[in-house]
Write a structure and sequence with these properties.
about 100 residues, 4 helices, globular
């Protein structure tokens, strides 16, 4: 029988301050993007899906060929998309 290790025993653990730092970086990028593009909501679930699919593709490409800094930038773009999509849904900005 194979004994499984728990994540706490097997993986390096990150700190709360590292989590807060990541959230701060995503927040900074979100507000920079809002400043650039405006606060208008996405109009549909499909618009959300299109954005997220593009960011997923760009993240995949970065993972396979770019530096870790580029991977982090693409992950922040995905986080921005997720946060903005949630805000659009909460604002009832989707037509369909």
């Amino acid at each position: 029988m194979i004994q499984k290790r728990s994540d706490k025993e097997y993986r390096q653990q990150i700190t709360s301050s590292q989590i807060e730092s990541a959230i701060d970086k995503a927040r900074e990028k979100l507000y920079a993007r809002l400043e650039e593009k405006g606060y208008g909501t996405w109009l549909s679930r499909h618009e959300i899906l299109g954005f997220m699919a593009e960011e997923y593709y760009e993240t995949t490409m970065a993972v396979h060929g770019e530096s870790l800094d580029e991977v982090k930038e693409e992950l922040k773009d995905m986080a921005v998309g997720c946060l903005f999509a949630i805000a659009c849904i909460d604002a009832k900005g989707l037509d369909w």
